[in-house]
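Quick note —
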Amino acid sequence: MSKDPPQPGDKHISVSLSEQQRSWTIGELARQFEVTPRTIRFYEQEGLLAPQRMGQKRIYRPRDRVRLKLTLRGKRLGFSLAEIREVITMYDAMPGGNARQLQRLLEILAQRREELDRQLEDIHLMRIEIDNVYQRARETLRQLEKQT
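Predicted structure written out below.
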């Protein structure tokens, strides 16, 4: 007994089509990710986003939204645009990504983790130094106040 092919009214088809048809304007994405439309246009110019065009209007699909999310996350983590582009290209190739791509992704992540660890140590040492200067300044101020 064979199953009838899915029909346009079937729930599975409706969900799939609505997900594929979902789109956003540049303003909607800018508000959603709390960035300026100029930022989004810049990432488009850099080849990180590829919206569809309807005249002058840009139409962003789910793929663009995910790429923007990855780009912004990468920037927050200190990745360069070249590294972000490389990671996004690998992301696009998943799950068919090959071992070489995955190895490169792991290298990029390991390098970034080492940089973050160094930055955390620098921040910790800077905090200690600031606390020391703060205490010395407070003590000096107290001494000056006693003299007046």
